[in-house]
Amino acid sequence: MNHSQNSEFSDVLLDQIADQLSDNGYLILKDILDQQLLQGLRLQAHALADQQWKNAGIGRANNHQIDLQVRSDKIHWITGNDQLETNYLALMNSLRIGLNRRLYLGLHDYECHFSLYRKDMFYKKHIDALKGKSNRILSSVLYLNEGWSKTDGGELLIHSETDSHILARVTPNLGTLVMFLSEQFPHQVLPAQKARYSIAGWFREARD
Ligand code: OGA
Ligand code: MN
Predict the structure, then answer these.
(1) Ligand whose nearest atom lies closest to the CA of 189
(2) How far is the CA of 2 from the centre of ligand 1 (A)?
(3) Cβ–ligand 1 contact at 156 (below 6 Å)
(4) Model's pTM, two decimal places?
(5) Which of 71, 78, 87, 194 has its CA 20 to 30 A from that of 117?
(6) What is the CATH number of domain 11-204?
(7) Residue 182 near ligand 1, beta carbon < 6 Å
(8) What are the boundaries of each domain within the chain?
(9) 12-49 pLDDT per residue, tens
C-alpha cells in the first residue's frame, strides 16, 4: 500500500463504519489498516521500556485513582512524538471528520494510549463514560498482537446495555479495530495469559 492510504480512510469504508455505528452502536473491523502502520505500532509498543508504562487509573481529573481490583493494565499516552504516532493520529482524525460529516456526532478531538496487559492482568466490566459526566463519545480499541490464540485469553467482551448477554467476544488480533458508543456499552477484558498490546482511544466532544 502506498503512503497516502496511511493517513486517511476511504469514503466507502467511512460509509460502512457510519452505517454500522448508527444501526448497532458498535462494530468490529478486521484488516482495514495498512500492514506497515500496524507493524510499526506493534514494534513501538513492544519497544517501550518498563518505566514508560504507567498504572492505569479509573475516573477522571479529581476522581483519578488507581484501583488494581478493577483494572491492572499499564498505559502509555500517544502524543504524536514521532512520525508513526503522527500517522496514527492523522488516520483517526480522518475517521473523526468522516463520522462527523455522516452522523453529526460533534467529535472534537481524539485521545489515545498504548495499553499493556501482562499475564493475569484484566479490566473488569465497566463503562468508559458515565452519562453527563464525561466528554468521551466514541471508544476505539486497536489490537497489536500477532498469532493470538483462544488459550491466550485476554478477550474483550462487549455486553448488552440492558441485560446480561454478551454481544461480542473479540480476540485481540493484530489489526482488529473495535468501536462502540462510550456511554452505552459495558465491556471488560478477560485476564490475559501473555502480554497483550493495544491502543485504546476516545473521540470526545468539546467541553469547557
Ligand atoms: C479501556 C478498555 C479494552 C481492550 O481501556 O477502557 O476497555 O480491549 N480496553 O483493551
Ligand atoms: Mn473501556
Answers:
(1) 1
(2) 30
(3) yes
(4) 0.93
(5) 87
(6) 2.60.120.620
(7) no
(8) 11-204
(9) 999 999 999 999 999 999 989 999 999 999 999 999 99
